[in-house]
Amino acid sequence: MSSQQSTDLPTRDLLLQKVCDHLKVIYPHLQDCGLAEELVRVMRLDEDCQTPLPHKDLWDETDIVVITYGNTILSGNQHPLKTLHHFLKTHFTMLINSVHILPFFPYSSDDGFAVIDYRQVDPSLGDWNDILPISTDFHLMADLVINHCSSQHQWFINFQRNQDPGRDYFFTVHPNEDLSGVVRPRTTPLLRSVKNGDESRCVWCTFGHDQIDLDFRNPKVLLEMVDIIRLYLDMGVRIFRLDAVAFLWKKIGTSCINLEETHEIVRLLRTLVEHADPNAIIITETNIPNRENLSYFGNANEAHLIYNFSLPPLLVHTLVSGNCHHLKNWLMSMPPAQNGTTYFNFIASHDGIGLRPVEGLLSDEEQQALIQTMENFGGRISWRALDDGSAKPYEINIALYDALRGTTAGEDQWQLQRFICAHAIMLALEGIPAFYLHSLVGTTNDYARVEEHGHNRAINRRQWQEQALNEKLADRDSHHHRVFYRLRELIQLRREQAAFHPNATQFTLHLGEQIFAFWRQSLDRRQSVFCLNNISDREQRVLLSSLNLIGIDCWKDLLSGEVFEDMMGEITLAPYQTLWITNRW
Q1: Do 56 and 501 touch, CB atoms closer than 8 A?
Q2: Which residues does residue 540 pair with via DSSP β-bridges, in sequence order?
Q3: What is the pTM for the complete model shown?
Q4: In angstroms, rounded to a whole number, what is the distance separating the alpha carbons of residues 466 and 464?
Q5: Of 261, 283, 304, whose CA–CA distance to 349 is shortest?
Q6: Pfam families this protein is in (predicted)?
Q7: What pLDDT score was predicted for residue 196?
Q8: What integer best gives the mean pLDDT of the chain?
């Protein structure tokens, strides 16, 4: 078909053609496009569906995300989702415009990521009537736990009974197959033997025996997920986080990670979602080495956003070692995101500080030094299985405030300054910044929760009573107050700078190993911001002449208010001090 003929087609016909093209890659054995018709019908895409504009940025410098569980903040007998909504509106109106509520569905384990029912809100949190107001006041990000579901899901119960729907929804494999090349994020056995009617079959469990991997070779599974996406759109979800999507497609004899069919399914979901809502966003959660992670941008036709997974371990390593060599090299190697895509920057989350994303970036010795330092500060280590049956550290579990207690030399007096410096760096980098709610309020390690729940990740999943937390935030002598108000100030300043647009120009500066510095320039080239960060516990001096400040402009540090008039002068940065030097304010 010629391009002229193609552009003359109605929008829905063009969409069907595009969906068929995706499906030919995923299911080459399909003889017709009946599945495409069914997918478009499930998404309710009629003749009036909207054509998304390619390479359109759906964000700007005002976009800030907070990440939280639905029950992080509690208040009496009120639904936790109502309490969360109230807390966010009270403290973050006009500062944070997006909220990622971690899985808020009925679940059996993994703090929400073993979903029992994708179509319901966990009654202990509330119901859809609690979700809708949040999605009205904030851009709502929700998880599509797409790789697996709970062993208590009705689909899996039906699988065991050999009934529909579910009898053919799960990936099964003969136990004698050679699976030695499969990449695992856990140390638990990959296969679980279960009854399937009168037979015993081995189901695939990437993450554990309560999380059974779905089989996307069956188009009915794809249809189920698309139907769930449609429901989430109806309930106000704007940003879809594809959880553990890298493991989606399996082929015996391969690593079963990042396969071409997986990428094509991401492309297909993007096509469907953005035709349903041109402002909807796909973000892929792929906690894997940096080069593999970057592949999920595709050619600006897969994820709109990808998690910048290398940033947390590299930044923590930088701040505890007092040397930015690796962070600087990594930043120089990162490609600018194409328009219509950008990075999702975070330095703390409900999970730990992943170590796979620094494979090839930090040496084994440097990783071990980081692990030892984190253990000294109360952290725990989670492991994954290797091909030879041995185990390797997979992530560090620790609250970020505790992770920055000191350096490799031990604890010191610079914890707060180090913590604020880390977030100042994140806020200024290319991409959209995301704050874990516990970081915003300076939460520390919760050892009691680890003991109660029996897994390391619980260390950074404290539950707060709203009144108690508000009292901490109001107490000027508490570190919670100091963290909270310092971060609020930084967020407000970031939102006012055009040079901090997620796709604004970024260049790495070379000012030594103790000054991590980069330059941002607004899309219209009118504003520049030179971001200088002393990542050491010693004063550092910088010559203004090394920044190439334009002589005809007036330059000011946004954070201290200091104006620089002598372009040949010298500036001194206190330990962990940040400067945002700009020509427009």
Answers
A1: no
A2: 573
A3: 0.96
A4: 6
A5: 283
A6: Alpha-amylase
A7: 86
A8: 95
Which strand (E) or helix (H) includes residue 484? helix 479-495
Sheet arrangement for strand 353-354: 353-354, 391-397, 380-385
Quick check: 208 and 188 in contact, CB under 8 A?
yes
Would you say 309 and 394 are in contact if contact means Cβ atoms under 8 Å apart?
A: no
pLDDT of residue 142: 98
| 38-56 pLDDT tens trace | 999 999 998 778 889 999 9
Q: Residues with catalytic annotation?
A: 243
> CB atoms < 10 A from the CB of 496, how many?
11
- pLDDT given for residue 46 in this prediction: 86
Closest to 532 (Cα-Cα) out of 521, 522, 544, 523: 544
Q: Is 179 exposed, middle or buried (0-12, 13-18, 19+ CB in 10 A)?
A: middle
Which residues make Cβ contacts (< 8 Å) with residue 377, sequence separation at least 6? 398, 402, 403, 405, 406, 411
Give the C-alpha separation, 187 to 207, whole Å: 9
In whole angstroms, what is the distance from residue 461 CA to residue 473 CA? 18
Enclosing H/E stretch for 294: helix 290-294
Neighbours of 207 (CB within 10 A): 21
State pLDDT tens for residues 347-403: 999 999 999 999 999 999 999 999 999 999 999 999 988 888 889 999 999 999 999
